[in-house]
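FAQ: What does a multi-protein file look like?

Like this. Sequence, then tokens, then the next protein.
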Amino acid sequence: MRRSGSLIVAVGLLAGCGQGDSAPVATVTRTVVEPSPVTEPSRVTASPPPVAVQPASDVTGRGHDVGTVVDVLDDQDGPVVLLVDRWTVLGVDDAVLARDGVPLEPTTRDRFTNQNTERTYRVPVAADPQVVVNTCVPPQADGASAGLVSRPASLEEFLRLPGRESLLVAVAYAGGELVRLDTVPLCD
């Protein structure tokens, strides 16, 4: 007990020191920060980002084609490029075909002709093209029309189809790239 009393007395004596002013005096400390010398930033020349090389397209300006996919050029660093053999649709002007395409309906092969077997067209494939495999369904009764069954597929699945090189396709382009491919339903 004695110790705590002497502590109170000592604190009281210390508080009374000074020139009669018992209020505590605030001390202000000023911190000065000296700026570091300004140095010029190092001159690092960044390499420009790699530019993706878009493969040449032979269909820029066209919206549609009909033909066969005769080859696939698969550059590991770029998009897949199809080689398309363009066919003609009897009774449809090529400018109309290029602009509007043709309706997909069950038909026969004699509606289409291949008038130029020496020229193919390079067609880069868009990142996620729509691919539809269309198949004819025979008529259910005499005199009835054939039907059509459609199913989505991947480009890889289409490219693995047996006899793919002779399958007629209708394709749609945007910006010189293939964005949609439909097999043409032939009911021979």
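And here is the next protein:
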Amino acid sequence: MGRTQRKRRHKKARNFHTCNESTEIVLLNSWLKKQGMKCNEKLVLAVFDDTGRGVLTKRKIKAGEELLNLPLNCTINVTSILMDVDFCSIFLVNKAPCVVEYKRKVSFQSLMAMYLVFLKIQGSKTKWSIYLNSLPKEYTVPYFLPNYLKCHIDTDILAVINKQNEIIKTSFHIFEKILENSNSDKDAVIKLKAKFTMSVYEWAYFTVNTRCVYMDLSKLVDLINVENSILNLIHDNTKISLCPYLDMINHSPSARNETKLMVSFNVKNINVNYLNDKLFSDVWFSIYTKSHFDSYTEVYICYGDSHNLKLITEYGFYLPANDLDYVSFNFEDVLIFLKSKLIKLSQDQMAFIHNHGLNKHLYIDLRGLSFNLYGLLMVVKYYYNQSHDVSRMLYSAALCSNDKLLNELITPMVRDKVVSVKESLSKLETYECDYVLSNCIALMSQYVVILEKFIKY
């Protein structure tokens, strides 16, 4: 009986099933092995009840152990793009001087997404086909919510979606125009012209968005003198990469890890015109854990300290009890609220606010008012009070958000925000709730908790 009970308890506690035997994963593991990937032998891919697909360790892992070691040419990074002659021909064999005409008009993430579409449309003809087939077919970010739900979600979530939408649409139309003007006769380019759609580009954009990792190749490759390269199109840096298998390890804010770029020969500042696979045959991207993991538990890495607004809009998941969550307030909305209370700021007050940056980063978190919101209210309340030196108070070590008068000044606006969020939640809860919507509801419910705590105290 005792043995049976132990088995039952073990079965009940088991919250995963391994998936290393599935055809898709067998193919991926086999391909990665051929490419030269070295993976910690304790690790297997699994599906977890709470986090979905991730990585399980069969035996205890100690801090300092290497989790994964990938050859650089087994990752999709800036060098992959630059060395793909067919892809570059889209831009360089063109009716228009597009690398000049669209100079610094797109992000590197957008260019990566365009390249991913290019690879995906080639199907089995590209070496990346097995990896591409292992990627999710859809993503759980609020960007993909239908419009009838978007109109009820919080303004902070909607602002991120609108920004993503603007970036995606703008870059899509730029790439669409470049494709139309391309004179490249490569089969892959001709195929891309016929199949380049917004839906596949959105998929590619969020594949990069949710799965890329930080990888700095600036010491290896000269990424500054790129006037005649397609990198002339981008307005930011190139320090992201898609890393097969590594991108299946899920996030935990408590996990600690370190990445290393290991070069076995003396090479640096390679000109972009002289790149080739042989140069990178002995360059490896490695990740080490600084955390301990017990046997038969999920292995995590940290994507960075992030609040849930970023986690749900950028990665598509929500972390309960996230102390980094906050509720933001727009400066213009604060001014409208003050005006409704017959409080009008003078030109001197407005100048002081802008000069000290107190019109930005206005929010309330579980600890109370942000430094800037507290400082803004201080200017509103005490700027003309001769017994208070606002400049000195603002940067005093004694500054804290426990001034009852300042809290009471903003409390009516906070109450209005609580009412507004609760009304939106009531409407959202009338719809069938999927994973994406439940994340939005969870975050908005957390907003209510934060705001009601502020009002209470």
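Q: Is there any per-entry metadata?
A: Some entries carry free-text notes. For the entry above: The first strand starts at residue 16 and ends at 18.
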